[in-house]
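lol ok so funny story. i was supposed to be doing the assay writeup but got distracted and ended up predicting the structure for this chain instead. priorities right. anyway since i did it might as well share w the group, maybe its usefull for someone
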Amino acid sequence: MFNQLIQFDQYLFFVINQGISNSFFDWLMPLLRERLTWVPLYLFLAFFLIKKYGKYGVVMLLFFVLTFGIADFFSASVIKPFVERLRPCNDPIIKLNVRSLVPCGSGYSFPSTHAANHFAMGVFLITVFYKKWKWIMPLALLWAISISFAQIYVGLHYPMDVTFGALIGGIIGYATGTILKKIIPIRPS
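and the output, tada:
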């Protein structure tokens, strides 16, 4: 059963990494997963929270950063060293068939820390602001899904890595968002 799951995961990986490859995605996907691409969004979010909510916005921003930190630490420093799954681009059995669009790196693959971090931040924003702004859900999910999908496309992660990273991040984002809402209720306007 476990071997069949791994084989299916590899099959899905190659469907995404090779089967849907095209020049537009070859340009877009490395850009989506690059952290500097999203700096303007983070700066806007920090400015918006502080401008709109003042000292409470600073607390929200601290919780947002804390959410990121917890997801990053838990996925990269706790789970990855325990599981030790090789990245597709480092797996000696399949690496010659992997389209690597970014440097592979030496870290482990499971779970995807990019997926954990971005789903944690996205679900945090949804948890905190959904009652006020319904549109935040599709935007935050699209943001997290696109970055996670890019991790597979560029050859760094298997679909199962991304799925579990998203699940872990979603749980962390929901937990920290719920705690924040207990401290600072956000009222719809």
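The helical segments are 2-19, 23-33, 39-53, 55-83, 113-129, 136-153, 159-183. The radius of gyration is 18 Å.
back to the writeup now i swear
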